[in-house]
């Protein structure tokens, strides 16, 4: 996963899903437009269920050229052949995660709204740094917040891509795009879109394109 010229869409799965039932809506969402990455984010699920979800959903993403990242678990990402892992500040040592993933898989690290955490993440081998939450989110209890100036500062200072996350929608994403976010990570904007996930992907991509004009 590398930052390109423009801002790209990074999709995260809904908090709860049945992998077999979810494969079809996922395929339709990914076929609706250019999605750079999909993160499997399931909480309070045992390893067997996570492995089953990976086995079913990873081919849906990878067959479409969409990078498949595992939330929280660099060990499982490496074992199962995922394209990478996203870890937070409470998810273990990033250096150990990088060791598990090897040099070629993507490692993303949550940095909240902290310049210090972002620079530390870069030094510890992150392939991208994630800032958030930028807006109120119903997807999780977000305990940290970020403002667009951190995206601007980061993109001026460093080459490493940045991800913006937290309550992002087609209606509010323009300042993040204009501040230099390389990726916008979303859950609700796509999976809770009133016209379906495919409409959610299209709306996000149209909003990103409009903000870049
Ligand atoms: C792209 C991206 N950014 C941030 C997060 C949040 O990670 P974390 O702080 O570990 O919180 P949980 O997702 O584990 O609840 C993320 N998952 N993805
Ligand atoms: C998983 C996650 N991490 C966040 C952070 O701030 O680190 S906000 C968030 C939820 C993102 O979902 P939605 O797009 O529905 O707001
Ligand atoms: Mg985590």
UniProtKB/TrEMBL annotation:
Pathway membership: Cofactor biosynthesis; thiamine diphosphate biosynthesis; thiamine phosphate from 4-amino-2-methyl-5-diphosphomethylpyrimidine and 4-methyl-5-(2-phosphoethyl)-thiazole: step 1/1
Domain Thiamine phosphate synthase/TenI: 9-190
Reactions the enzyme catalyzes: 2-[(2R,5Z)-2-carboxy-4-methylthiazol-5(2H)-ylidene]ethyl phosphate + 4-amino-2-methyl-5-(diphosphooxymethyl)pyrimidine + 2 H(+) = thiamine phosphate + CO2 + diphosphate; 2-(2-carboxy-4-methylthiazol-5-yl)ethyl phosphate + 4-amino-2-methyl-5-(diphosphooxymethyl)pyrimidine + 2 H(+) = thiamine phosphate + CO2 + diphosphate; 4-methyl-5-(2-phosphooxyethyl)-thiazole + 4-amino-2-methyl-5-(diphosphooxymethyl)pyrimidine + H(+) = thiamine phosphate + diphosphate
Residues that, per the record, bind 2-[(2R,5Z)-2-carboxy-4-methylthiazol-5(2H)-ylidene]ethyl phosphate: 137-139, 167
Names of required cofactors: Mg(2+)
EC number: 2.5.1.3
A Pfam family hit: TMP-TENI
InterPro entries from the UniProt entry: Aldolase_TIM (IPR013785), ThiamineP_synth_sf (IPR036206), ThiamineP_synth_TenI (IPR022998), TMP_synthase (IPR034291)
SUPFAM superfamilies (UniProt xref): Thiamin phosphate synthase
EC primary class: transferase
Key word Metal-binding present: yes
GO function terms (MF aspect): thiamine-phosphate diphosphorylase activity
Annotated positions binding Mg(2+): 72, 91
Textual note on the cofactor: Binds 1 Mg(2+) ion per subunit.
Domain of life of the source: Bacteria
Sorted UniProt keywords: Magnesium, Metal-binding, Thiamine biosynthesis, Transferase
Family membership noted in the UniProt record: Belongs to the thiamine-phosphate synthase family.
Role noted for this protein: Condenses 4-methyl-5-(beta-hydroxyethyl)thiazole monophosphate (THZ-P) and 2-methyl-4-amino-5-hydroxymethyl pyrimidine pyrophosphate (HMP-PP) to form thiamine monophosphate (TMP).
NCBIfam families documented for this protein: thiE
UniProt name for this protein: Thiamine-phosphate synthase
Native species: Teichococcus globiformis
Chain's gene name: thiE
């Amino acid at each position: 996963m590398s930052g390109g010229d423009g801002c790209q869409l990074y999709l995260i799965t809904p908090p709860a899903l049945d992998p077999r039932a979810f494969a079809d809506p996922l395929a339709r969402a990914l076929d609706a437009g250019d999605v750079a990455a999909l993160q499997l984010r399931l909480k309070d699920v045992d390893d067997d269920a996570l492995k089953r979800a990976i086995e079913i959903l990873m081919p849906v993403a990878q067959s479409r050229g969409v990078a498949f990242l595992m939330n929280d678990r660099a060990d499982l990402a490496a074992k199962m052949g995922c394209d990478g892992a996203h870890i937070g500040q409470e998810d273990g040592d990033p250096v150990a995660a990088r060791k598990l993933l090897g040099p070629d898989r993507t490692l993303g690290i949550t940095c909240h709204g902290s310049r210090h955490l972002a620079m530390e993440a870069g030094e510890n081998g992150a392939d991208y740094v994630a800032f958030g939450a930028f807006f109120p989110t119903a997807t999780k209890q977000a305990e940290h917040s970020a403002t667009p100036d951190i995206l601007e500062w980061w993109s001026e200072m460093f080459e490493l891509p940045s991800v913006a996350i937290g309550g992002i929608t087609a209606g509010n994403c323009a300042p993040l795009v204009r501040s230099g976010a390389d990726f916008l990570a979303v859950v609700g904007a796509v999976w809770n879109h009133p016209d379906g996930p495919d409409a959610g992907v299209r709306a996000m991509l149209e909003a990103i394109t409009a903000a870049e004009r």
